[in-house]
């Protein structure tokens, strides 16, 4: 990483099919050079998680992912003891099978189950640690998390302090369902990703769904932009849903986004009846088709 440059990293992102602005790559570059975690915020489906995946491919590093959810605690994220294996060993000892062992031997590394956080700092090979949707955890877990990310070491009562064998590249993502604490933000380089412009989404579609062609890709990008601009829908379409829409239209043999094509495929890009009804009522099928096909 010593020879890493902004331009080189930008080319690597492009080679991996991640279409982005130069400013985004500059922020990622600075996180890498400063050795700090990268905190990526934005609406669901704008490409936050993909940054961690792309970095793992660029640096040929193992991707270790911690998917956050409400109720996640240290045991599930860091380590657990293999109780079944411990009980089996105790039973074998009672039956006189195997070597004699003390109670402390039951809490050795042999019986330790590494969860994502511990695995990431104990693996000797290069690692990208992706902590996905960190805004879903409770504040207590978040506090534990930024302490771990500061020192990259953990204390296990039975084993003592375990220090990282190598410092992983850390990417945290947040859908902004709640505010992330200042303590965590201070330890990170911050990046916000918004929904793409029409031109950027056209480029993404040409990479991810090249079979759609330039014209249909542009029509899909324009229509999705109209849908996202409506404040009445509950879930705005993600980039992945734009890609699915383009592929669905190709599968139906649609050469352009006509009113009939919109009616047949709107459920590909909107995933609940209320949002579909809102778009049909407030935007209109005719407007989607006409707006998409504007020069």
TrEMBL record:
SMART domains: AAA. Residues 34-194 form the AAA+ ATPase domain. GO terms for molecular function: ATP binding; ATP hydrolysis activity. Transmembrane segments: none annotated. This is AAA+ ATPase domain-containing protein.
